[in-house]
Amino acid sequence: MRLNSPGLAALALLLALTTSLSSRAADPTKAEKKHPANRLAKESSSYLLQHAHNPVDWYPWGEEAFARAKKENKLVFLSVGYSSCHWCHVMERESFASEAIAKILNTHYVCIKVDREERPDIDDIYLTSLQLMGQGGGWPMTMFLTPDGKPIFGGTYFPPDDKEIDGRKITGMKTLLDAVQETWKDDPKRLLEQADKIARATSEYLVRSTSGITLAKLDAAAIKTGADSLLEIMDPLHGGFGRKRGGFEGSKFPMPPSLAFLWQQAKKSDGENLRVQVKLTLNKIADGGIYDHLGGGFHRYSTERTWSVPHFEKMLYDNAQLVELYAKVYSDDPNPRYREVITDTLAFIEREMTDPTGGFYSALDADSDGKEGAFYVWTRDELKSAFPNDADYTLFTAALGGHGSPNFEGNAYVLKRSRSFADVAADQKLTEAELRAKLAPLKAKLLEVRASRNRPFLDRKILTAWNGMMIAGYAEAGKVLKEPKYLDAARKAADFVLTKLRSADGRLARVWAIGENGTGSAKGVAFSEDYAFVIHGLLNLFSATGERRWLDEAKSLTETVKRWHTDDRAAGYYYTANDAEKLFARSKDYHDGVQPSANSQMAANLVRLWKLTDSEDYRKAADSTIRTFGYTIENNADQVPAMLAALDRLLSEPVLPTPPANAPKDLARDSAKVVKLAALAAKPADDGTITITATLTIDKPWHVYANPVKNKTLQPTETVVAVYQGGKKLDAKVTYPASKTVEDEFTGDYEIYEGTPTITITVKPTGTGPLEVRATVSACNERSCLKSSTLQVMLP
Q1: Does the keyword Glycoprotein apply (predicted)?
Q2: In the listed set 452, 486, 518, which residue is the last one of a domain according to the structure?
């Protein structure tokens, strides 16, 4: 995308800054308060409160901000982040605390700050639009919006001033803000048209990406394809997932959904290779610096291939999922190291992340004392000071690092296991048991020293979805390790969610916000992921305890999420509730990344409920949910490992369609490759109306879905024809032709067009420009469906 302003020439380079700069953030708990409080001081979000004394005239997300933008004809400057985000702190200190930058923002923009953890719906929509612009995603996310909230363009971190990095000139915030304002002043129409295109593209993408019904057989072969695709991108030396062509260099995330799916497949007769790779990954993670060897628990991700140097924030959702994963693997392969990881991580959760009510806090910051990792890393002098006895120092550093060249920024060590304890013990002429016994008091001593340091900021908000994950982790660990206190913790947290975060009508809230006085309150309407993960936690708790209450509560919440989030026109679950705030687009969460998507988790929940209750309704709901994302399963299986895991469990009794054995193999991936549009307009009538004849030419053996398609599941893919003038859709009467009925015992009967169907349109132009006919079609044959396309033709 290009804007007509010289100050924006370097936009394509801006996102490279997200991980390449080395600026240090101020400790958010020590934020200066030299400026009067702004509107954010009245919010409960820790992230928003970190900006409450900026000179920027921040608004929280809401109608007040957009009303002002419309009234004053100003663009909206949107900044999205979260409390433990290191680069959010950097940008807050460098730009949002700057008087000069605040003056530009306050004069020319209406500024909105959003906590992505409280409003993931806002974050998701604008992140999708950012990616459709060809930009990468990340946080802080910086977006420029029209007064009605449509995205113009954006990026992630921006430095305050222009600078040169590796020979490239990078545009800074001051230059950027001035350039955008100049463009808005001189050519607002250009920005508004650009925003309309991006908003429309985002909305259409979100519809297309979740309506890829496939008639290909979704069977064991599809599941194996997904496993093979993931195995192909696994690092054979250090485990985890990365870019094979890049030598697996760069950042690595643990990716529990992918590992859990591969472990499920590893237990099959031909899964030994998967078993080796999953265990390699779990071993490397447990030995690396991404794991806290003193306090327990996992940091968010590794900044490099070997898991040695992490990004130090600790997120509840990572620890919850990894506890559950290690417990599942331990139940099949009782490695004592896995048990140790589980118990130490849950000790960390109990000690530092658990509220007295039983709920779990969301995150610990990466920064303290204005530096990332300062709480966790050690200089050689600090280690020697802690262990004045040379023998203790030698033993500790041999086991957990602190010798050789520093591995963190040239002067400090991230503790990690470079060698197995068996090898270290042999070198020290000890048994492994003796080594562990000698290490225990040394680790306790160093943990005591660390406790005297300034602690990272703790975000005490209690998020419903992440608590569901932690309930699941505690319950699985309690079952596998036969530890009653873990089951008690899961019960207490479940009681908290079901009493404090559920309203009288059975609906969940998104967050339990804790004020400075320690009191809390439920806030925000839950998203589909909140229901999905709480149901998962309750089902794990039922499995671990056999207590009927948890199954009944899971069934009740399933009915609630179906009522408020189901797509009545097709299938699957919208991220937002049907009565939630309407943004410019609406999504169905389906991509499994660092955590499962809401739809993948709901599919898994429905399969479990079907097998626990033998209710055909649950089986059908699971079937239709999985089928909704069938195109992605068929073509990008590695993006949906948790969905594949649900499909695998569902296939214990095959229920998905099988295509004809002689179905042709088609390589086309876009409906525009097999469907063409032509249109001809008749002479205007006396009243100005025009009759347009639009003809689709559909290659054999393809067809498109008719309008009406007469099938609820396929409704999002039916053919839609419309007329535009000057980019605006006109009111028109569209008469669709007769269609052909296809009988399908699995999908249900539906209507199609083949050959050259003709659509008649009657329209009265409202302007003077040319008319444009658009037809959105989804082409299929007996084997599969192509991506939807919007065909366009201009009339003379």
Answers
A1: no
A2: 452
Whole-angstrom distance, CA of residue 329 vs CA of residue 645 = 15
Answer yes or no: do 163 and 31 share one domain.
yes
Dig out the tokens for 128 from the structure: 């999708």
Chain mean position to CA 288: 25
Q: Which residue intervals of 267-309 are DSSP H helices? A: 272-287
Question: Last residue of a domain, which of 192, 208, 224?
Answer: 208
Asked if 429 and 484 sit in the same domain, the reply is no
Type of residue numbered 792: Q
Same domain, 603 and 741: no
The kind and range of the H/E element at 548 are helix 548-565
Question: What's phi and psi for 463, nearest 5 deg?
Answer: -90, 130
User: pLDDT of 614-649, one tens digit each?
Assistant: 999 999 999 989 988 888 888 888 999 999 999 999
State the CB neighbour count (10 A cutoff) for residue 408: 20
Instruction: Note whether 128 and 80 are same-domain residues.
Output: yes
Within 568-615, residue ranges assigned H as helices are: 598-613
Read off the pLDDT of residues 581-621 as tens digits, 9 standing for 90 and up: 999 888 898 899 999 999 999 999 999 999 999 999 999 99
Q: Do the Cβ atoms of 647 and 592 come closer than 8 Å? A: no
Distance of CA 708 to the CA centre of its chain: 34
A 10 A CB-CB count for 22 gives: 8
DSSP summary character for residue 93: I
> Which pLDDT band, with edges at 50, 70 and 90, does 783 fall under?
low
Domain-embedded: residue 358: no
For 10, counting Cβ atoms within 10 Å of its Cβ (0-12 exposed, 13-18 middle, 19+ buried), the class is: middle
Who's near 16: CB < 8 A, 6+ residues apart?
Answer: 165
Ordered strands of the 732-735 beta sheet: 675-681, 690-698, 758-763, 732-735
